[in-house]
Known about the structure:
By secondary structure, this protein is mainly beta. Helices cover 3% and strands 43% of the residues. The chain has a nine-stranded antiparallel sheet, with no helix packed on it.
Amino acid sequence: MTTANNIQTIEWGKIGDEVINLYTITNSNGVRVDIANFGAAVQSILIPDKNGKQVDIVLGYDSLKGYENDDFYIGTIVGRYANRIAGGRVKIDGTDHQLTVKDGGFHHHGGKIGFNKKVWQAESFTDGESNGVKLTYLSADGEEGFPGNLKTTVTYTLNNLNQLIVDYKAATDKPTILNLTQHTYFNLVGHNEGSVLDHQLMLPHQYYLPVNQMQVPAGELGDVKDTPFDFTAFKAIGRDIGIENEQLELSLGYDHSWVVKQSRSDEVVLAASVAEPGSGRKVNVYTTEPAIHLYTGNFLDGSPGKNNSSYGFREGFCLETQNYPDSPNHSNFPSALLNPGETFTSRTIFEFEWDKE
């Protein structure tokens, strides 16, 4: 173990000849975040509860092997294109490109070997009272069918305001499309404490994106009013999840995007808040992205996780900030195009709070 820039680093294993490290970042309030440079994964987040008890609130694995074998994108950065693209065939700057597709006929979460399965180059840093890790990956021209050599940097910064800031930056040498997200699964009671359906969720947005049989957006914006998708005031995640509703049945629960903005901008806005009354813990999510995707762990199947635990059906939730899914197929959606000479930038902030007795 080494310590530099107030960050502890341990060698966690190897992928071929490449060393995988686990970086431990702490702040002055007892918040701790562990980050691996395989998949740029958030491996753990420890925060206090209302009694000061530290608990790990994100799903994950004890070892590198767990992330190599993972089928659920747990904790990782997803790209080049997060979520789904119908058909997987896209026209970019007048040229058709066939992306890798799943059996259902859609491109999903970056392809067969996406950013979640890549080794990222990492360096730790200190900036005033903040500590962090900067991770970089070069995606080669043609990888998973995407054009252009794409250099992507993801920077995690933990500050003393109990904010984990995720900054994205990318550049390409050919016109390409890009949609990145952070795919951490949260359970504010503790990573191995069962269902998340009693968590109180607020999504302050009027519209969500209804999906078709392929679970890609149909193209229109759906008003949440008088639907199970209305989280404009805090309510339990599970309150309406069992209601007879075609959209919920298609996805076995919530696996949908809410409209944060209808166009791209650099403005950081509140996208979601989740509170867990028993522990007093809360997370607020702010972003520059146009959408936030709620996934309620509908396909978790009891696979093993950290500390001899297992993660089952709806025992974690994701709040994935991103562009609209299937954006290349809908001219009314915010563009995912990135051209040479441009720099893609995006910011998401996970802000943690806890009651104090």
